[in-house]
Amino acid sequence: MAAAKKRRDALLGNHQRCWLWGRHLVRQTLEANRWPIHEIHLADRLGEEELSRLQSLADRHHVPVIVETATRLTQLAKTKDHQGYLAKMGIFPYKAAEEVLQNPAKNPLYLILDAMQDAYNFGAVIRSAEVFGASAIVVGKHRQATVNSLVARSSVGAVNRVPIVQSADVATMIQLLQTQGILVYGASEKAVEPIFKHDLSGPIGLVIGNEGTGISSEVQAVCDGFVRIPLQGEIGSLNAAVAAGIVLYEATRQR
Question: Which residues does the UniProt record annotate as the domain Cyclic nucleotide-binding (predicted)?
Fold first, then answer.
């Protein structure tokens, strides 16, 4: 059990450092030039042309490249799934609230996460937010999954494309958005009206709560209203990432 946890920790890293691996993810992260990369490790089994292309791209962004055996990459990443690509990452560049508030999109659509703790869910939500054109994602600092390798991989690299704002207090951030004319709706199975009866075509924020407890009372207190996803089955709730995708789809459809 201890060995399994050690391997998982090595893959996850933390908010200070983690490893990203895989051809697509490493290349995309390097090209985006957003998340700082300390160094890139490439397997010597890659062809000369491929190594040369990566070296040129890395040189453009002043990232050192180390070419070594695939076995060594496996030792560093603690996984064989690296495809010959491994990147040692720096601190993820969360956006400050001021950056978003001072440079708002023309018709902003914000996705607000209230203590989403599962890394895979978080990554899937980021992917949906990018696909449906969200202006930014807002997350808190407490009881919230941080961006790490699992999040990056499950987002299919969308962490490099959609701004993620980290706020000390989600409720306070919502109130700041509201001063900018943003209407904020929480997704709740207890809401009276289904989501398609709400006008989501203007500047809005959509709140998705914690996987187990939903939206906190503090955040509920500052929401302008609540929307419900119509359900037919007996389980009565959706996975948080699935719910996020549905509410984002409806907002995009109305636009």
Answer: 100-161
